[in-house]
Design goal:
The structure holds two protein chains of two kinds.
Chain A lengths: L2 E12 L2 E12 L3 E5 L6 H8 L7 E6 L2 E2 L8 E4 L11 H11 L4 H14 L15 H13 L5 E5 L7 H16 L3 E6 L2 H7 L2 E6 L2 E7 H7 L4 E7 L11 E6 L4 E5 L5 H11 L1 E8 L3 H11 L1
Parallel strand pairs in A: 3-8, 3-9, 6-7, 7-8
Antiparallel strand pairs in A: 1-2, 1-4, 4-5, 9-10, 11-13, 11-14, 12-13
Helix pairs in contact in A: 2-3, 2-4
Chain B lengths: L1 H15 L2 H30 L2 E7 L4 H12 L9 E6 L6 H13 L5 E5 L3 H4 L3 E4 L5 H22 L4 H7 L8 E4 L2 E4 L2 H35 L2 H6 L4 H41 L13 H28 L3 H7 L1 H17 L6 H8 L4 H10 L5 H29 L9 H10 L1
Parallel strand pairs in B: 1-2, 1-3
Antiparallel strand pairs in B: 3-4, 5-6
The chains are: A alpha/beta, B alpha/beta.
Chain lengths: 299, 428
């Protein structure tokens, strides 16, 4: 499938700070693409360049087959990490206003807005002012404003921040629906387990550079399917054995172990059974969380 | 273009729909009406109120003539003498004790003022007034004029001249002012015309300052609430800036038009009311403000607004909150203030080279060229030239402030410094 977005050798500096360095990235169309990275990695700068809010110092950015012009702005929807709505505006007017800025006529935007308000269970709040709504409700209003014009490319920066599990599920369903209908979503987040569940491909940015890129399954395969998770009771002295365990993360409920090279999971299990009471044992691939920490700390 | 219109519409409605705007727009004319009403009422009551003047005439010759002259000259609207006289017989020996007694009467407001005409008034050219209020300029000048008139008449009489002849020869003249303009020549009072110019300039000055600051506040509020980030994913920064400036300017114009309507209604029906209440006021012709003055008032407001609104928009993009804004906006505020203060110089020398030069500087033109036009000092070509200069400056300012705006609007957290801003203008 064609790429919805492609960056080639993109650079952006602010004074001495090199926010984005030599970044190349291909985002396949019709997927959820994870844009991951620690705070200050250059994610927001990259997103702003995609939106033409900032211009790159050098490099090429191609969006939906268009490079450089602002023509495709109407086909992009953007939910920034820091939410912003006009506090004194009514909910319905807010949604219609943002839709009109994306080129929708007021006549078309009205019924669509009502349909979406119903979908996210806010129809009773239609005529209230934004400032009267709770944080979570405001977030849903902003989410609707982002996608009402049926954008081909949706950029969501931390879309689940501050949402309860019910609303998280609701937004997640809508995201999957958008992708199903052919849209591409760029999903920027710190939450690795969310990214792990939703993303088809991803790019991990650190200090303005791409550290890791590709399909989630490929990346995990690259890190090997050799993690052991053990649930146990007792004193696990074997964890300190550097000839067996290269590193481990204690999550409280269980321990995730990375065995040394050439050490088979069976060997770990045998050793564990000698020393502690094992209540569960699992051989899996590394979590995205672990990959994230490994890459960021290792650089 | 369509997006800019959407932005303008939102901005305009957001302003016009607030309670503050509606109340401000409607309450202002009523406040002014009440103010004018109170002033007229007090003026009328003051005019009806007769003043009793105690006169101690040590020469014995002035007081009767003075009474006759003043009762003939100064009358209230009912055609009654404005001043009543109480003659106090006095000799130099009793002066001190009588003065003490009468100052007490002044103090207890039994008489309005005590006038002492000393024996040597013909040589020393001075007389005394004792009153609670010595700042009533109208009374002071009336009295000074009357006494001078009577004393000089007596002096001439003393020198042997015929009294009737003296009266005729010393008749005071009345000054009648005629305003010459493109629409012809009309009799008008200079003071009233200045009052109207002054009022219109005061409105311009206040409006430029107020609406300029509305733009600044609007920009940094949107920046602070992070709406800017969402907007900029749909529109260019210059569209956002244009939406802000035109939307708020439109709200300002709306307010102006409502007020203009009130003024038009007020001057028609208000005059009718005044004439009914005070039949003598018929002669009180209100100076007519010509259509061209109204027209230029709006033109200078609009161009002046664009000049200052672009500057204030750039300021708004550079700051994050009110405190930052306060400390950064003074250069622009001083520009407006300078124009306003220069007006007091220009009104006296509206044709001097300095006045012409100042009124052509785009930052001052909205106030000063308009002022020079209203007092008839600026020929039409100068007015048109200043409008051309303003349009050119607005283009330049949009270019300049647009560059600051584009960068500043995305800069959160810290206030921009001047060297940074210069760099933005150079490199962006």
């Amino acid at each position: 499938m064609a790429n919805a977005v492609s960056l080639k050798n993109v650079q952006k500096s602010f004074d001495e700070v090199r926010a984005v360095q030599n970044l190349s990235m291909d985002i396949p169309a019709g997927e959820i693409f994870g844009l991951l990275g620690p705070n200050g990695a250059g994610k927001t700068t990259t997103i702003r360049m995609l939106l033409h809010i900032l211009m790159p110092d050098s490099g090429i950015i191609e969006i939906l087959g268009d490079s450089g012009s602002r023509k495709i702005t109407d086909q992009v929807g953007y939910l920034p990490e820091e939410r912003g709505l006009f506090k004194k505006m009514r909910v319905i007017d807010t949604i219609k206003f943002f839709a009109e800025l994306k080129g929708l006529s007021a006549r078309k935007a009205g019924p669509l807005a009502d349909k979406w308000l119903e979908r996210v269970d806010l129809q009773e709040w239609r005529n209230r002012r934004v400032e009267e709504l709770s944080k979570g409700m405001q977030q849903k209003v902003q989410f609707i404003s982002t996608i009402l014009h049926q954008p081909k490319l949706v950029i969501l920066d931390e879309p689940f921040a501050g949402l309860d599990p019910v609303n998280t599920g609701l937004i997640k369903d809508i995201m999957l629906e958008l992708v199903h209908n052919g849209s591409t979503i760029i999903f920027s987040t710190h939450l690795m387990d969310q990214a792990e569940k939703l993303c088809d491909s991803l790019c991990l940015i650190h200090r303005g550079q791409s550290m890791l890129q590709g399909k989630l399954t490929d990346i995990k395969a690259r890190f090997g399917r050799n993690r052991c998770r053990i649930r146990y009771d007792g004193d696990a002295r074997f964890l300190q054995d550097r000839s067996l365990v290269s590193r481990y993360d204690d999550y409280g409920q269980y321990v995730e172990i990375q065995p040394c090279d050439h050490v088979k999971p069976q060997t770990i299990l045998a050793k564990a059974m000698e020393q502690v009471t094992v209540s569960g044992f699992d051989v899996t691939e590394p979590s995205l969380n672990e990959i994230f920490i490994t890459v960021v700390k290792g650089s | 273009m369509k997006k800019t219109l959407t932005l303008i519409k939102r901005e305009y409605l957001a302003r016009v729909r607030t309670k503050g705007f509606i109340i401000g727009t409607l309450a202002m004319p009523f406040l002014v009406f009440i103010l004018i009403g109170v002033q007229m009422l007090t003026a009328q009551m003051g005019a009806r109120e007769k003043k009793t003047l105690a006169v101690m005439d040590l020469t014995g010759r002035i007081a009767p003539v003075l009474q006759k002259h003043m009762s003939e000259t100064y009358k209230n609207s009912q055609n009654e003498p404005l001043y009543q006289f109480e003659h106090v017989a006095v000799i130099p020996e009793s002066l001190a004790s009588l003065k003490a007694r009468y100052t007490r009467r002044v103090q207890s407001e039994k008489v309005s003022a005590l006038i002492v005409l000393p024996q040597d008034v013909f040589d020393k050219n001075a007389f005394e007034v004792y009153a609670r209020n010595i700042s009533n300029m109208e009374f002071n000048s009336n009295l000074e004029r009357a006494v001078s008139y009577v004393v000089s008449g007596l002096r001439l009489e003393q020198s042997g001249l015929d009294q009737a002849l003296v009266r005729r020869l010393t008749q005071r003249l009345e000054l009648r002012t005629f305003k010459v303009s493109e629409e012809g020549t009309k009799e008008e009072s200079g003071m009233v015309m200045f009052g109207i110019s002054y009022a219109m300039i005061l409105i311009l000055y206040t409006a430029l300052l107020m609406y300029g600051q509305f733009v600044m506040r609007g920009v940094y509020e949107d920046k602070n609430s992070r709406v800017v980030e969402v907007l900029l994913s749909s529109v260019r920064p210059d569209q956002f800036m244009a939406g802000k400036i035109i939307g708020i300017g439109g709200a300002g114009l709306t307010q102006f038009l409502v007020w203009a309507l009130f003024v038009a209604l007020g001057s028609t029906y208000g005059m009718l009311m005044v004439k009914q209440m005070a039949p003598g006021a018929e002669s009180l012709a209100l100076p007519t403000i010509s259509f061209s003055i109204y027209l230029f008032f709006f033109i200078f407001f609009i161009f002046g607004y664009f000049i200052y609104a672009t500057l204030y928009a750039a300021l708004g993009s550079m700051v994050n909150d009110e405190a930052d804004a306060q400390s950064l906006q003074w250069p622009v505020t001083i520009l407006i203030l300078m124009g306003f203060l220069a007006m007091f110089f220009i009104i006296n020398n509206p044709n001097s080279t300095l006045a012409v030069v100042l009124s052509l500087i785009p930052f001052f033109a909205p106030l000063l060229m308009f002022l020079r036009y209203t007092v008839g000092a600026a020929p039409l070509y100068q007015v048109l030239l200043s409008i051309a200069v303003m349009i050119a400056s607005i283009y330049g300012l949009i270019w300049l402030t647009g560059r600051v705006f584009r960068v500043g609007i995305l800069l959160y957290g810290k206030r921009a410094t001047l060297p940074e801003v210069v760099k933005w203008i150079k490199y962006s």
